[in-house]
Inverse folding.
């Protein structure tokens, strides 16, 4: 018995000594010791895990408070820095840098065998080289009719909603449209999400449930010991609740397996250039080998997360602001009516929409305010070290500059909280600071597709409908940082009234 007590005591002392050593080293002797930050954050990664998973705070909002207190560079973990100066954005994310993505964050999505999830530049490049052709400007122009068809299906659903005297929930509706586009583009098989009652498509509900789960997966190794040893009530709070993710995976697996089980089926799809045609073509790969079924699944999940919420959120945020400012709404409608005088003829093509200044300014302003991904895109400084802003950063440091710190910077975008499409007119100077799709070798693969959806989406919806926000009208669209923004406030519901001509 005495032996057991001694062994237990020795274990406790060993852990305590190790903890004191680690904390002292991190606070005083670590290569990042000179950078300011909350004392606990400087000492242990458990601080960030606590903030995100137990205090349930939105990290991009916490960062605003930290920068106000500690200055332009904040040490948010023993080995992690966040930069608030927009110049740092271009120092980190540019075509010369082939920095790795950071493992803890990117492995948490369970997609680390996909173009999005591969940690290294080389692996991602191999996969993106295969996919780029399917997402090129020319390929998207070739798929214009597909995107237009899904936009029209959304408009038809809005008409049905209007006939039934029911408002449309735009939090769901726009994301349904984007999901329909990406599933056809990927698999050639529509899931008709826009036709779900009240736009509550099961796949969207599953994805919403999964977004917080990813946050918890990020720290699951840290919490593993505590979860197994702590009382059930606490363990429920901090353990990864996987229900949403399981639903999503089952839905996706069903769709993907349907095609990947029998590649011959690809031949019978309505158009012959789905992303899966590319992915399943061994000739497209340098090693002439099609990726494993697991990697194909992860690619599909990455494309659905990447292509659904982002486009839908951008449209919802833009519409929210347009409905609050009737002068800007009328300007957009006037430009659309001039280009498309009668709904029965001369429907504008993407090429026409690209030339419409106000429409494109509205889209840029919507991208700025919704910001795409709101978390810092974590990168690891290579063995040569780096200079970010004026600071010399040691090798191995995890660094990021969140897009919201660029998009909401008052020096770059005066009155940053206001929706002012006019700021994009007349000059392209600000384009350098629109970083919703990120920059450098890991920038968005689907930006051409996204622009096509946004142009056709805004053009059709605002040309074909007069809209009035339904009660209760949200006065803002609060979100939580779950990598993408998760909007948790009152949903934007809108009465859609079809216009006659
Ligand atoms: C408004 C719409 C969109 C926005 C704002 C957006 C934003 C972004 C951002 C910020 C990244 C960088 C993520 C990171 O570094 O970890 C990214 C990557 C990516 N996006 Fe998008 N995206 C949009 C639409 C799409 C669409 C439609 C697709 C395709 C279906 C797509 C597919 C991807 C993929 C595969 C990556 C990973 C690229 C890589 O890691 O190298 N995105 N996107």
């Amino acid at each position: 018995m005495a032996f057991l007590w001694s062994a237990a005591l020795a274990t406790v002392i060993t852990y305590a000594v190790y903890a004191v050593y680690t904390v002292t080293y991190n606070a005083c002797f670590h290569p990042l010791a000179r950078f300011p930050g909350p004392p606990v954050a400087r000492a242990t990664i458990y601080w960030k895990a606590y903030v995100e998973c137990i205090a349930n705070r939105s990290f991009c909002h916490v960062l605003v408070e930290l920068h106000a207190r500690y200055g332009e560079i904040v040490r948010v973990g023993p080995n992690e820095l966040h930069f608030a100066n927009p110049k740092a954005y271009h120092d980190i994310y540019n075509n010369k840098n082939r920095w790795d993505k950071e493992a803890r964050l990117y492995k948490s999505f369970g997609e680390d065998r996909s173009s999005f999830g591969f940690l290294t530049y080389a692996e991602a490049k191999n996969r993106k080289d295969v996919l780029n052709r399917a997402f090129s400007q020319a390929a998207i122009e070739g798929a214009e009719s597909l995107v237009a068809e899904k936009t029209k299906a959304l408009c038809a659903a809005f008409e049905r909603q209007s006939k039934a005297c029911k408002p449309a929930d735009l939090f769901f509706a726009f994301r349904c449209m984007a999901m329909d586009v990406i599933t056809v583009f990927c698999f050639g098989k529509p899931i008709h999400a826009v036709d779900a009652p009240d736009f509550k498509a099961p796949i969207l509900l599953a994805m919403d449930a999964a977004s917080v789960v990813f946050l918890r997966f990020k720290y699951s190794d840290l919490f593993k010991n505590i979860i197994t040893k702590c009382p059930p009530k606490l363990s429920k709070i901090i353990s990864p609740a996987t229900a949403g993710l399981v639903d999503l995976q089952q839905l996706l697996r069903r769709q993907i397996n349907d095609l990947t089980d029998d590649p011959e089926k690809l031949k019978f799809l309505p158009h012959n250039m789905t992303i899966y045609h590319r992915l399943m073509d061994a000739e497209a790969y340098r090693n002439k080998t099609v990726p494993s079924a697991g990697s194909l699944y992860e690619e599909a999940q990455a494309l659905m997360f990447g292509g659904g919420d982002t486009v839908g959120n951008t449209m919802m945020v833009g519409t929210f602001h347009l409905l609050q400012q009737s002068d800007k709404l009328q300007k957009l409608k006037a430009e659309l009516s001039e280009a498309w005088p009668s709904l029965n003829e001369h429907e504008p093509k993407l090429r026409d929409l690209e030339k419409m200044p106000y429409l494109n300014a509205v889209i840029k302003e919507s991208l700025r305010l919704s910001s795409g991904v709101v978390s810092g895109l974590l990168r690891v400084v290579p063995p040569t070290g780096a200079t970010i802003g004026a600071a010399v950063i040691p090798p191995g440091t995890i660094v990021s500059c969140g897009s919201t710190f660029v998009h909401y910077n008052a020096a770059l975008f005066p009155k940053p909280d206001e929706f002012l499409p006019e700021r994009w007119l007349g000059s392209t100077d600000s384009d350098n600071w629109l970083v919703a799709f990120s920059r450098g070798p890991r920038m968005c693969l689907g930006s051409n597709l996204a622009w096509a959806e946004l142009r056709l989406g805004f053009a059709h919806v605002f040309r074909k409908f007069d809209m009035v926000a339904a009660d209760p009208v949200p006065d803002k669209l609060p979100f939580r940082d779950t990598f993408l923004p998760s909007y948790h406030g009152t949903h934007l519901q809108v009465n859609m009234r079809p216009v006659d001509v």
About this structure: The pocket of protoporphyrin IX containing FE is lined by residues 115-116, 124, 128, 182, 302-303, 306-307, 310-311, 314, 372-373, 377, 436-438, 442, 444-446, 449-450 (CB under 6 Å). The two ends are 89 Å apart (CA to CA).
